[in-house]
Design a protein that fits this description.
Elements lengths: L2 H17 L23 E14 L3 E11 L2 E7 L7 E6 L2 E5 L5 E4 L2 H9 L5 H7 L10 E4 L2 E4 L2 E11 L2 E10 L3 E16 L2
Antiparallel strand pairs: 1-2, 1-11, 2-3, 3-4, 4-5, 5-6, 7-8, 8-9, 9-10, 10-11
Length: about 200
């Protein structure tokens, strides 16, 4: 296990222990429906804070996650409690910039390949930009299921939804294939209702 993933694991365990003392229950709101979410393809900006767990056959790790989406750019921050042991991933078009906060910034013109080398397992970052809001990637075929959809060999399941401003957004998401499983719990959504004209 790399030093980064070892730190994330330790900080995440501490975070779970600390948060267990102050859990505020969130009431589930609504159910998943792809057809009712189609207008979200036009959502220009959104952000969320939550917790991510990733597991593969030979490795697993967890982290706090903050994701900001703007037109043409994704900012994904993975960290332990109080921002320790963090990594900031910026995706701009087909270019990725990775900042570990130690003064060493790396970049690549092969975003998914580069990110997967850093994380130690394949994570479909470009598709996740759509999957986290509950939508299939528009450029690929998909098949609906009772609680989500299958696309590009991955199964996305939306186990719990929540109200965020005037929308019903995912709260508990599982994305998996035969090799990797991602579990995401979104604690807070921040939506910008400016739609594309």
């Amino acid at each position: 296990m790399s030093r980064f993933k070892a730190k994330l694991f330790i900080y995440s365990c501490l975070s779970l222990l600390l948060s267990a003392c102050s859990v505020v229950p969130i009431e589930p709101s609504g159910y998943y429906s792809r057809a009712e979410r189609l207008h979200l393809y036009e959502l220009k900006q959104w952000a969320f804070d939550g917790r991510l767990a990733v597991s593969g056959h030979n490795d697993s790790w967890s982290a706090n996650i903050s994701w900001e989406h703007e037109p043409g750019e994704e900012k994904i921050k993975l960290s332990g409690p109080l921002g320790q042991g963090g990594m900031l991933i910026r995706l701009v078009g087909d270019f990725v910039i990775l900042d570990r906060g130690d003064g060493k910034v790396e970049s690549s013109e092969r975003p998914e390949e580069f990110i997967n080398q850093q994380l130690g397992m394949f994570v479909p970052v470009h598709s996740l930009r759509y999957w986290v809001v509950g939508l299939p990637e528009p450029s690929q075929r998909f098949e609906e299921t009772s609680s989500g959809f299958e696309q590009a060999g991955w199964h996305s399941e939306y186990k719990e939804m929540q109200r965020a401003e005037d929308e019903t957004m995912p709260r508990k998401i599982t994305v998996m294939n035969d090799q990797v499983k991602l579990k995401l719990i979104v604690d807070h959504w921040n939506l910008n209702d400016a739609k594309a004209k």
